[in-house]
């Protein structure tokens, strides 16, 4: 314990996406625009769904939760990076680093499980349409939406409790723009085997298991859709799933690359690129993916913005 107090670092240096001042200026402008678009898009969807009674259905209830998670995920990482670039300071204290890591995993786990819940909702809607309202009762919807938050709280807290056991000495430079688990483990000068084993267990629970559930749901959905006699009916059924499938591809394409690929094929550049996709690009694109092909949501958004315009004039 005494050696820990003497050697453990009190702060880390976030090297960011680039150490070139000219590139940092461009990155600041780019990520500021992306964050503003993300915030406006996700908050607009939450307000539109909450203000329109026609959208008080399980699918939109889960979508509002997803928008809240995306907003939290991006807000946890992007503003800190923008402040670091603007203030020309890349340091982050040890407690702040652990806090950022906690919320990154907290929102990330909720995001992954919630995507699987939305796949189950589409499965019930397409495979059991006559029993949809009975199966997706308000109680079950509340349980399906609330459980990922509770589950994520305990998993993320366990990550932090395992992290505070470690000692960081010598190099305190993190080749990333936020405090992520993998780069931090590389800096530790103590045994991290327990942490790595827990990372693999959690990855199996919150990435692999939801992904398998999504594949199983869509396998049943495809079988059900192929039994629809009319081409128009099949097209309509597929269109209700296309937005969700796009989000699944974006989410799991990046997270599997970061957390389930062997460490031998991972590099700092690949990790940062995947993190940008996961924490900035995907939360920004999700509102557009879900609203562009959804008439009801587009109508609710138009009503919301027209009310704002009228009230401000």
UniProtKB/TrEMBL annotation:
InterPro entries for the chain: GPCR_Rhodpsn, GPCR_Rhodpsn_7TM, Olfact_rcpt
Predominant subcellular localization, coarse grouping: membrane
Ranges of residues in domain G-protein coupled receptors family 1 profile: 41-290
Membrane topology, from the record: Multi-pass membrane protein
Alphabetic keyword roster: Cell membrane, G-protein coupled receptor, Membrane, Olfaction, Receptor, Sensory transduction, Transducer, Transmembrane, Transmembrane helix
Any one GO molecular function term: G protein-coupled receptor activity
Transmembrane stretches, start-end: 26-49, 61-82, 102-120, 140-168, 197-225, 237-260, 275-292
Annotated Pfam families: 7tm_4
Cellular localisation: Cell membrane; Membrane
Gene Ontology annotations for the cellular component aspect, listed alphabetically: plasma membrane
Sequence similarity: Belongs to the G-protein coupled receptor 1 family.
Described function: Putative odorant or sperm cell receptor.
Protein name stated in the entry: Olfactory receptor
Species of the source: Nyctereutes procyonoides (Raccoon dog)
Lineage: Eukaryota, Metazoa, Chordata, Craniata, Vertebrata
């Amino acid at each position: 314990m005494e050696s820990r107090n003497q050697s453990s670092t009190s702060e880390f240096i976030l090297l960011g996406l680039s150490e070139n001042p000219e590139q940092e200026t461009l990155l600041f402008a780019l990520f500021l625009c992306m964050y503003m678009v993300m915030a406006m898009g996700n908050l607009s969807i939450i307000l539109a769904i909450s203000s329109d009674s026609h959208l008080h259905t399980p699918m939109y209830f889960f979508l509002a939760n997803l928008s809240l998670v995306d907003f939290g995920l991006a807000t946890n990482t992007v503003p800190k990076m923008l402040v670091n670039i603007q203030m020309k300071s890349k340091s982050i204290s040890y407690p702040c680093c652990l806090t950022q890591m906690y919320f990154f995993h907290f929102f990330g786990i909720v995001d992954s499980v919630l995507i699987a819940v939305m796949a189950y909702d589409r499965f019930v809607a397409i495979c059991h349409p006559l029993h949809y309202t009975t199966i997706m009762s308000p109680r079950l919807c509340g349980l399906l939406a609330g459980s990922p938050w509770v589950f994520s709280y305990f998993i993320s807290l366990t990550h932090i409790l395992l992290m505070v056991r470690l000692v960081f000495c010598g190099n305190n430079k993190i080749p990333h723009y936020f405090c992520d688990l993998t780069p931090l483990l590389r800096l530790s000068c103590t045994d991290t085997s327990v942490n790595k084993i827990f990372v693999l267990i959690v990855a199996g629970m919150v990435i692999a298991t939801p992904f398998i559930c999504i594949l199983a749901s869509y396998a049943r959905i495809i079988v059900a859709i192929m039994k629809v006699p009319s081409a128009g009916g099949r097209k309509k059924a597929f269109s209700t799933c296309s937005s969700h499938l796009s989000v699944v591809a974006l989410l799991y394409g990046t997270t599997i690359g970061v957390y389930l690929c062997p460490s031998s094929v991972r590099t700092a550049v690949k990790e940062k690129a995947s993190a940008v996709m996961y924490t900035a690009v995907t939360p920004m694109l999700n509102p557009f993916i879900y609203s562009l092909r959804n008439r009801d949501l587009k109508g609710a958004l138009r009503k919301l913005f027209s009310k704002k315009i009228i009230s401000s004039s």
